[in-house]
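Checklist before submission:
- one chain only
- standard amino acids only
- sequence pasted in full

Submission:
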Amino acid sequence: MIPPLASMEIPLSDRLDLRKVALSPAPSHSPTKESYLAPGDDVHAQSSDSSSHTHVREVIAVPATSSEVSNEPSSTGVALHEYCQPRVDIVASVDAMKQVFSMPYNSTPKGIAVHRVGRRLVVGTSAESESQRISRRYKKTASPPPSTPVLTLTPPPPAVSAQNPFLVNNWDIHDDDRDEGMDHQLVTDPETGEIFLVCDDDPVPCLEDIAQTSVQRGLHDRFLHDAFSRVSFPLELTMTEHVPPSLLHLSSYQQLVRWQFNSMEMLLGSNTVIFKHKADDASENVDTPTSVTLYDRSTLNALACLDTWLDNVMNNLHQTAFCYHRDGHVQGYHMVRTEDLPFMQAPELFDAHAVFDNAQMILSFLQEHCVDEAQTYWLTKVSDKVHLFQLPTNVFTTADHTVGMLCFQLANSIATHDVRRAQRLYTKCIRMIDAKACPDVAAQACLALGTTLLRPHLVTSLPLRLLETASPHAMVDDLSAALDACEAFARQDGTPKIATLFEIAQRYLPTKKPPPPPSDDVRMDDQYPPPLLDDEAQEKEDFEQALVVFGLGMKWAQEVTATESSLVDSLSACYYVLAHFALHEADLGTALSHTHTLLALLPSYEYPQVTLLVAKLHLRLAATSSVDAHRTRFFATAQRTNDLKRLMTKQQAAVAAPAWVHMSETFATKWPAGDKELHLNVAVACAMHVGTSKATHQTLPLLSVGRDPVHDAFRATLRDAYVSQTRQFVVSGRLTKGARHAEQGLVLFSSTGDTAAVIEMRVLLGEIALRLATDSSGFHKAIGAFTRALSDLTSGSHEDVGNEWMHALQGHVLLLLRLAHAQHALYLQEWLSRKALRTVDDVGGWTAAQSAVRVELTKCLTCSQDALRLRPSCVKTRWRVADAHYLLACLYASHLGLQQHGTSPSVDAVQLMKTCEDHYAAALDALPLAFETCVHHLLLRLDAVKFLLSTGVKIEANATTPPSEAAPWRALMCLVQCAPLYSLPSGNDASLEDRQRVSMLLQGLFRLIEQQVHGCMKALIKLKHPRTDHLKDCYLTWIKHASSAPPKALLARALESLSQPPAVELMRP
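Returned file contents:
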């Protein structure tokens, strides 16, 4: 139920006397002395005694067709919107306006639909909701109402039908949709007395007066428009040129009337058939415009006379011929002047001044309350009140097409300075206009609406922003994956070597299960993409809305027109931008579908912006592990664009598609999993196509960009594609092909002056040399390639790349250089240390082989620390720094151990031991402290304790100046500081199996820690350490609570007890 928006009481609304009005059967031939308007005449002041408020300014008739061309009258009619001038206040049909004027006097008036378009009110009739039509159709099917007599009209002549565009099922209105008694009805709440508008679901009873009115209307239409029936017309009545209403569009009329009503100017459409009456006793040879009304003697009453009077006044007709009939046969006619109609019977049938006053009140009421251009209003009457309602948007009125055309005209005039209002008007136009009758206007409205949505975003920065290549964050991820692959390859030979922390991690780290495949409605990438900013989200929403509007316009646009061309350009811009948005959000299936649709819209394949988009998209697809969700999104999006593709003219049908187009389309039909090389081939082919194209530089019309940005984007895309393809050869084990590809890339990018790509090619050649290295010469070759690339990065100015890219690649090269030095050091330690090279070359007792290993590991540490300074927050780089410290600590521990078992101990063993301890401590500081690394912390501490208790004790025993703290004490403090490792949170990423595994390892390692702690305490007590009393208390406390206290409590209590100063220090003043 819809409550009324406003209501108004009509003070002068006495109902008319509906008794029969008797006419003399003898016709009257008294001529009128009043002047009249012929169609096309202009009048500045026309008035009569009964209509001093009004005058007709102009009558606009259907343009007459040339007799030389056709003898048939024009069947197009005249449309209201074509002659609506700015000063017009009300636009309506004569029938609708008659209902407004007669509403106060009609006991059961029909409702009136009202629309606001600018300063004008547009009035229509027969509004009906879609639910009401469906309900009525169903009930007609279930129980059809009693049939009423139907008079069949004579079909129009073939010539007229052929030239009328509305006879070819263009105006899609079913007979069931027309008003047949079902109407919006008013109900009154019995408790509050409020009035509501509802749709009556029950069929309206076919009352006798309604049935008679229907029959009379049918007879009247046949009487006026059937040539056979007009034979009975008197000779002095001749019909003017007219078009049968059945041939006219609902928004077209026989003639238009500019009618001045008080201060309101109205433009009225009329289908009233006008006759010319020539009286026998006329003093002048003047034809008086006359209307003809068919009636029988039982139906003529005051309401019918009021209707005839209003029709004559609004059409500027001065008399009417009442033709009475019997069973459809004319028995005679009676001529009555217009000003005499209210006085046909005493007392007067109606007061003309009261009719105008009431109409003025109603129209002023509508102008005051019908203010929203997006709404459809409904006016109806109950008792002595009129009520105004706001209807839903899904209604049908006879004024819809006129409203749509007027909205289009008004929106065009304000689109540049009032965009929001213009968008509302264009939307209403698209919803209400008859697109089948005026397809070009509908297409232009869609184009204009979409353009207003896109105009704020079509700035110079948009195409430049879309040309940007992958973000540095994506590049960092790619480089990290490449480094991991290189390190994994270095551990595949299976030869015995010193275990690094990375290899320890492979043994003890919790193995994370791969995440389950995402569902169709979940983001498909391995990591969630960064969210859109508010401005970007609004931009995406506007482009999506514009895409829908432009696609709707393509259904109506005529082929090979400027409108169609503009729509294609706008659609191309929308698909291009939305493909980039989908690419940013990692929705690769949608991005691929938009890209293929864009390729189908363009007349050729020589648009570098689009070609580079295809390359970037396939580069992203190459880095994606799973394609199932992307495949689903692709086919879902492609299904929505199939209709548009069928509507498009294949302009590039004669143009041979490049190979990369066929490869991309082939992939889209099957979506094979894991075909990374196919995507890289497409990306390289796209980049090469842009670089080798001989066609002139073309850009998207709405997203034009200069040559320099396109050239920069081409270089960056070619670099990314070529490097990714070379790296794929390397990762897949095709090292020879990868080396040849990289060498070709060096030549290619050196010729183009792309120094950044040259550096990446050198880095790849270094990776290949590192993988192929089996001796020192191979490692030196890899180290030389990495060193040269690093030198180029740090010394040269690279204007073609940003600082973030340079830092990312510099960190990657440093880590590769660190890996090369580490692998070379391990190679030297595994093989050269077994040779009989015992020559000591320094005071520390290092052999040549050991010195070479130490130098390589020192460089490894330096490279790791330099990479960490570039990216301090990188966890993997911290692992690598810790690994370098650990390898150096192992080297020093091994060297000191050999010295203690040899015959010539080093004179600087204490200093070497301190250096070894510092590397252990630095490794512990660099190693990330987390749930996944707690086991590694324990192992690293146990390894340091092993060194102190085995080698350190011996060094201190032989040293002349031992350290201030004994080696067992330092080992004990290293062990009890493990307490925080037993309270680290597991985090949300760890599964139950991982937590159980780590807990089991921690419990097992605690037994070893407990043994070492007890051994250290006993040794220190035996050595009579200054803190002997604290050690004894700590030992007894540990033994007492060992079975009940958790590891963290035991270690924390021991650390607190041992941290207290010794008793000797407490006694000092």
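Reviewer check: The chain has a mean pLDDT of 76.
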